[in-house]
Design goal:
eight-stranded mixed sheet; 2 domains; Rossmann fold; about 425 residues
Length: about 425
């Protein structure tokens, strides 16, 4: 039977669409790579979110990525080109400093500019409104809440600082091309601004830096990574260690992180010295992200003792997923952002925030049942390998960038061809 007119038309459309896809793919191969420029003036070390989870995967996907920062990096690292800024304090503050930074950024002639520091919001807005560049702001923390609890700010200024950050972030949501957050609760603040694209980019581990842990000696029972402060629950964890010592239990704790001030650091060392006879605590400070997996793997149990403050009612703690990626059992305070991930996971035990007794009991149970802790760690690793890793986040971030530059149809055609 002869083909119907409808069938012929359908086949013709499919053939033309296939040719169009092939043309777009050839065009994508021939064209110059998209230039993506991340910039920061605040961080002298590589940030795991901006470099390891965003920039490195973009470079692997064919972008030409530039990292403008005061970091002590030169040349190209993992496909990312480094443009080093002056380390001189205040070099990029004030009108003159902003002009110097703008000049450096415009010299990159990037297709997309990307930043995370809230103090650089005026620069981002200038790039967009004056120089008509594509700009992405990554509000990876709830910065207004952080200002409201910032110990280094006088109490009388905290509310004003929080309101100021909130106001300028609202402007960014209206005027910039895209807003990214690390959790769905934070992005709700920007939902009322329909002009910018929105993306939740979860801080899931990049498995290139978290390979499956090799069997190694467990030098520590417990590990904590992150800020070392009251609000992060560090002193609550030390109190749990004291209670373990009162029960005649010797525990070894590794702390990986930093304090907000010298006064906080002195207090931390004082508290640790009181535990010296019955516990062992090592402070390792900041370490490169490339070394994090090996360091975490020295312990059996990862602790996330965050307190119930506004910031932690919004932000998902990345440490939980990095513990799981390192095959550790997790003990975590029960807070709304992490609850969907840890509850019913069988890979974590939760306790009420601020409850030293609950934290102590959870630790004791896992120390008394090492087989259970090992099984929980193995299950956590499987969760990260199957769901909570950076692969899908990196693909969605790439698609956002290509959408902003008009390349998204090329990406879809390429992925369809390789499906």
């Amino acid at each position: 039977m002869a083909a119907s007119t409808t069938q012929i038309a359908t086949h013709t459309k499919e053939a033309l669409a296939s040719r169009d896809d092939e043309k777009r793919l050839v065009f994508a191969a021939d064209r110059q790579p998209t230039v993506f420029c991340h910039f920061t003036t605040a961080h002298r070390t590589l940030k795991s979110r901006s470099f390891h989870r965003q920039c490195a995967p973009l470079a692997a996907a064919g972008f030409r990525v530039r990292y403008v920062s005061p970091a002590e990096m030169e040349g190209t690292h993992e496909g990312v080109e480094f443009v080093r800024l002056s380390e001189h304090a205040g070099a990029f503050e004030g009108p003159a400093g902003h002009m110097r930074l703008l000049r450096t950024l415009l010299q990159q002639n990037a297709n997309i500019y990307h930043f995370q520091d809230p103090q650089l919001l005026p620069i981002g807005l200038l790039l967009k409104k004056v120089f008509h560049r594509r700009v992405i702001y990554d509000a990876y923390e709830d910065f207004p809440s952080m200002m409201g609890n910032k110990a280094s700010l006088p109490r009388g200024l905290r509310a004003t600082a929080a309101a100021g950050i909130s106001a300028i972030e609202s402007c960014a949501a209206r005027w910039l091309d895209a807003i990214i957050t690390a959790d769905p609760l934070t992005i709700r603040r920007f939902a009322g601004s329909p002009t910018s694209r929105k993306l939740v980019f979860y801080n899931f581990p990049n498995l290139d830096y978290f390979p499956r842990a090799q069997s190694r000696e467990k030098r520590f029972d417990l590990v904590y990574r992150g800020g070392l402060s009251d609000r992060a629950g560090t002193f609550l964890l030390l109190e749990a260690l004291r209670r373990l010592a009162d029960q005649g239990r010797f525990a070894r704790l590794l702390l990986i992180g930093y304090t907000d001030s010298q006064a906080e650091e002195r207090r931390l060392h004082e508290q640790i010295s009181l535990l010296a006879r019955n516990s062992y605590v090592e402070i390792r400070g900041r370490i490169p992200h490339e070394e994090m997996a090996a360091a975490l793997s020295e312990a059996r149990i990862g602790i996330s003792p965050l307190m119930d403050i506004p910031k932690f009612r919004l932000n998902i703690p990345v440490k939980i997923f990095e513990y799981w990626a390192s095959s550790l059992a997790v003990v975590a305070s029960d807070l709304p952002p992490s609850r969907p991930f840890v509850r019913n996971s069988s890979a974590a035990v939760v306790f009420p925030p601020g409850d030293a007794d609950g934290l102590t009991k959870a630790i004791v149970n896992l120390l008394d049942h090492p087989d259970l802790a090992q099984k929980m760690g193995e299950l956590g690793r499987k969760l990260v390998e199957s769901r909570f890793n950076n692969n899908s986040e990196a693909r969605r971030f790439e698609l956002l960038c290509r959408t902003l530059t008009g390349e998204s149809r090329v990406v879809c055609a390429r992925e369809f061809q390789h499906a």
